[in-house]
Amino acid sequence: MASSSPKYNSNSLESSSIKRIPKDGTKWEQNEEIPRLPGETSITDKEVIYVCPFNGAVKGRLYVTNYRLYLRSVELDPVVILDVPLGVIARIEKMGGASSRGENSYGLDITCKDMRNLRFALKQEGHSRRDIFEILTKYAFPQSHNLPFFAFVNEEKFAENGWMVYNPMPEYRRQGLPNEQWRVTFINEHYGLCDTYPSLLVVPYNATDDDLKKVSAFRSRNRIPVLSWIHPENQAVVMRSSQPLVGMSGKRNKDDERYLDIIRDANGQISKLTIYDARPSVNAVANKATGGGYEGDDAYPNAELFFLDIHNIHVMRESLKKLKDIVYPNVEESHWLSSLESTHWLEHIKLVLTGAIQVADKVSSGKSSVLVHCSDGWDRTAQLTSLAMLMLDSYYRTIVGFEVLVQKEWISFGHKFASRIGHGDKNHADADRSPIFLQFIDCVWQMSKQFPTAFEFNEQFLITILDHLYSCRFGTFLYNCESVREKEKVTERTLSLWSLINSEKAKHTNPFYTKELNRALYPVASMRHLELWVNYYIRWNPRIRQQQPNPVEQRYMELLALRDDYMRRLEELQITNNSKISNSSASSASPSQMMSHVQTHF
Amino acid sequence: MLSGSKNSFKIQQHEPGPALRGPKSSAMNSRRNKNCQAFPCIPGEHVLEAAAHVRKIVRSRDGKGSILGTLYCTNLRVAFVPEPTPGDAVGAPRCSTRLHSEHDVALLCIRRLVAVNSFTKAKVLTASSTLKFIPEELILYCRDFRVLRFRFHDSGLEPRACQVTLAIVQAQGSSSVSAGMWYDTGAIRNLENAWLSTEESSSSSTLLFERPCDWEKELRRLGAAGWRVSPVNERFDMATSLPKYLWVPSRLLDNELKRAFGHFNARRIPRLCWHHPGGSDLLRAAGFHADSDPEKEDVRSVEALMLAGHAQCVIVETAVDLPSPAEIQLSYLKLRALCLPDSSVADEKWLSALEGTRWLEHVRACVRKACEVAVLLAERSRSIMLQESDDRDLNCLLASLIQVLSDPHTRTQSGFQSLLQKEWVVAGHPFLQRLNLLRDNDREESPVFLLFLDCVWQLLQQFPASFEFTETYLLALHDSSYIPFFSTFLFNCQWERDRRNQHRASNQIYAPVNGWREPPPLEILQKGGRLVKEKGGPYLPTIWDWALRYTTQQRSQFRNPAYARSRGSTTVPNGKSAPLGGDKLEAALSGSGTMYLFAKGALSPQTHLFPWKNGSLSKKGWWRAQSSESLSEQDRSLRSSPSGCPLQPEGLLLPASVGPLIRLWRRCYLRGSQEVQRGLFASTLGELAEELDLLRGRLTGEGTC
């Protein structure tokens, strides 16, 4: 053990995977069915030893289905249970050989995408691990074996249909669009203009479809500047795009220049258009070598360009790797803070938040329209626009509103979930993988921590989203863009994650939520105020986890129930009292009158 | 020294110092400025200077703002009184009579004064400095991590700005110069009188441990049957730094007891702190005296004291693993420098700079050690003695922290205050030296007490529903330790505290009974005076009189609405204590020896009852060698034990002390920074609690009609 002193769990309701069975639990059957979703089928099972980094070796039976890996310990007190969707598996390795010595040295080592590793030891005789290795590999990486994602065989039923949550037209209408300055265009209906954009786009009224086509030639992967959000009062807008194709020779494009000027002009302000290039300036310059670049002063005199210094996907991936090294399996003890600093994870979070704050502030206080882009406009750009929108628009801070935000800014605008997460793909070292979406959720968590009453959803909501980002149980995060999703008929053939969440909303609701309209939230993006999200990154460590459920939340729920009870009893009493003394003129306020005096928060 | 500039003022020109001026001149000042009459002085306080139309700069996350008002400099404090805004109800009670409000700062709490003018660099002002420009902004850096900023009227040429600035500089300078004579200044004497009237308002449920009945009451609460209250030190003739009353084993007579004193440093013998319902006893004592002779017969009473009727006694060397007071001070200074808004540390280097202060490391060490001892206490019936060389610093911290972990009663506000009285105030923690309230000697300064508050805050973070009080309360306590008007933190031990107050009593001339203002009629005076003498109570109030400084509204934020009174009894944890230790630990303990040494998380048997003679206490090597092994055994046994639950049935809290869970107390240390963080709790929880009270009231009303 790297940690060298007695530590007592803060929470220690054992790890969620360890359940205590009463001593007289003889009814517990070894062969009891493992939990299965409709559509889930058992593939195999095997005696293994689970080498738990926290509690030592545990003898148990490992079950593999087409959805999950499930382990139950042979010992009943405490019974150890592991329940891991195969989708979180990034890599399966064989450890040790047939002749390896030492206890539990022969078996499988599984690296997961959710900050943990699993290690199973098997008997060395008779190549016992070969079958299980092959089966696991096949079902964990279905895309590499011509198998469908589990999402396509999942037969769950939910009361809510999550696919109905987002529909671009009502969402734009909610924002007051189209209006005199902005129109909805169907130019991309068949993904002819840009194959990674959604079919429906909002563009300046004064730009024709023909203009858009010309502009698309000058933007990387044809991702032209389109509207993400419009300020309800000052009409300033948040636009998103990819980089201009300036190249080494410093090419210019009159159509692009004019298009940006139309955007600047649309909210009737004389100020310049503000362009936020999410990259560090050196990277932006370097991109010229591959045909990209940024908007130069001479070509765009009416625009101001700022670089936001956010690093690329490779830097983020390495940073998270370092973070995992210091928190799993053991938490770095001796120099925790400097180790944390050396991962730079929080520093990246800070830069993303700082960038989003600038965007939001420019739109809200500066009353100026902004254009956000990075290289291709599907990673850092999505982070910035969605976070800025979260700061500016309280609708996105509700459960459904946040689902809309993710659906719109991330899924429909082509954040490459398939490449970044590597769903069902065995190529664990793929350089395209990167925790960009995780970083976004972390930023949201930081905001919810600083504004505990501003969000309708709780921490569990964010963790659930991240769990199913990997699980492949829902179609929500599958594939890279809308055009592919349409081809694969995702909405018809799979379920949406929002179906699950919206069917059990109470579990994901923040009891302290106070509805507030039209207040822009600016989190403090300073290292002094950012925190590591312990409940996510270190959640597998049974000694770290905080008390769950949060006792303060629980207490609040109790008090709410108590209030309802009081209200009911008060009403009853009043009815009986009123009937008793109906002749008396003494009138007492009814509970409903009462409520007008007492602040209610819902 | 006077430069040619017409705007140059030399501070010395204002001699004699304002503090030395009589009330007459202050009256003159008052006449000079109409606003002064509006200022609610406390008796003995007089306004030295005032400036109207000053803006106090308040920054919040909602933007930058300021409050318009008048800035006062008195002989005790710098105060800012906001101008009533039209929205305020006429005659709304002002809370400005309170000594501590967010706008006030005691002169002794000001650490640094900086004057800013847009044309010159910021200038740090000391009593001997000259002010060569008219300040536009005055920045007060307070010892309690607050930073107050005042902006003078835009015209900038207002002479008031200079005058009030100079007055503050001068008053602040003389307040520390005259610190040695603090008690004898007229101000403090009058102040004392003024407090008397409010004494009744002190929360009577807090045990001050100044009278034997408090000790008896607490002993009954603990159910410590084998113990009694001994008045052996009633006249402080056994040990001046110890409390008057001690808890000692019942069967040990005072005569035998007296023999034990000589064996301990400063005669601070082992005595009971807390009794675990499972039978264990927690004791604290100073180190063995160097001249103590183990061959002497009276060593038996020492033995009887330490074992306290148990078969085993575990000696916990408090200083091992914990920082020394000097280290704590060093770390605290670094932390304060780092947390200042103008700290030069780059944001990217913040985490390592924070680590570099070692403050959190010290917090972690304390939490961990307290946790280990709390487990030892719960494990089996034994006596555990915390031993620190002088028993006045980290023993206070450790003894009280262990009780907070073990005894739910100490997590109520009155229980916590009683605990602080018992283990810190009357136990002789040298508050005056450590907090250096009078700023007369920096050498002994060390915020051991503030480190303790930080530890408690950590527990509050990890167990948010287990405490009756809130972060706001801890913050108020933190701030109180910088206010030099209370007996609690103004003395080094109870003997000093008593002596000072006795002295006052004999000089007592009058005792106003109704309020701050004027001397009451003669009869009441005499009555009151007699009353005071009979009661023999303190003349300076304790800080527990929260009503003196905090409004009802502010005090309501001391109560944690999420507090879930522990199931079962609220007084002591119930009897059954599950054995926490593993078999191996038990086996190690069942050996023949009766004395064990506990350090680095491991127990080692002591062959000699009095190890100070064979020097084993100083030979650190031998137990370290074996400690790592037994440590991991204990670790494992603790993990696999069924008692992993943090809130044990008997109310034991076992906090985690790993890096990510020991956090910086931002609301305290980062207060001076520009971004203000909003409170710990969602306001809705408090509001809901209020609403429930209202409904409950209505419900009873309806029920009875």
TrEMBL record, chain A:
Keyword vocabulary terms for this entry: Cell membrane, Cell projection, Cytoplasm, Endosome, Hydrolase, Lipid metabolism, Membrane, Protein phosphatase
Biased composition (Low complexity): 580-596
Positions with biased composition (Polar residues): 1-18
Listed Basic and acidic residues bias regions: 21-33
An example Gene Ontology CC term for this record: ruffle
Reaction(s) catalysed (UniProt annotation): 1,2-dioctanoyl-sn-glycero-3-phospho-(1-D-myo-inositol-3-phosphate) + H2O = 1,2-dioctanoyl-sn-glycero-3-phospho-(1D-myo-inositol) + phosphate; 1,2-dihexadecanoyl-sn-glycero-3-phospho-(1D-myo-inositol-3,5-bisphosphate) + H2O = 1,2-dihexadecanoyl-sn-glycero-3-phospho-(1D-myo-inositol-5-phosphate) + phosphate; a 1,2-diacyl-sn-glycero-3-phospho-(1D-myo-inositol-3-phosphate) + H2O = a 1,2-diacyl-sn-glycero-3-phospho-(1D-myo-inositol) + phosphate; a 1,2-diacyl-sn-glycero-3-phospho-(1D-myo-inositol-3,5-bisphosphate) + H2O = a 1,2-diacyl-sn-glycero-3-phospho-(1D-myo-inositol-5-phosphate) + phosphate
Catalytic residues identified in the record: C374 (phosphocysteine intermediate)
Membrane topology: Peripheral membrane protein
Domain Myotubularin phosphatase: residue ranges: 162-537
Residues holding substrate: N312, I313, C374, S375, D376, G377, W378, D379, R380
Domain annotation Tyrosine specific protein phosphatases: ranges: 343-390
The protein's Enzyme Commission number: 3.1.3.95
Subcellular location as annotated: Cell membrane; Cell projection, Filopodium; Cell projection, Ruffle; Cytoplasm, Myofibril, Sarcomere
Example GO BP: TOR signaling
Region (Disordered): 1-33, 580-602
GO function term, MF aspect, one: phosphatidylinositol binding
PANTHER family cross-referenced by the UniProt entry: MYOTUBULARIN (PTHR10807:SF69), MYOTUBULARIN-RELATED (PTHR10807)
UniProt similarity note: Belongs to the protein-tyrosine phosphatase family. Non-receptor class myotubularin subfamily.
The protein, known as: Myotubularin
Organism listed in the record: Gopherus evgoodei
From TrEMBL, chain B:
Polar residues biased stretches: 1-11
Name listed for the protein in its UniProt record: Myotubularin phosphatase domain-containing protein
Domain Myotubularin phosphatase per the UniProt entry, residue ranges: 209-669
GO BP terms, alphabetized: phosphatidylinositol dephosphorylation
A Pfam cross-reference name: Myotub-related
Similarity section: Belongs to the protein-tyrosine phosphatase family. Non-receptor class myotubularin subfamily.
Source organism (scientific name): Gopherus agassizii
One of the record's GO cellular component terms: membrane
Disordered as annotated region, ranges: 1-31, 560-579
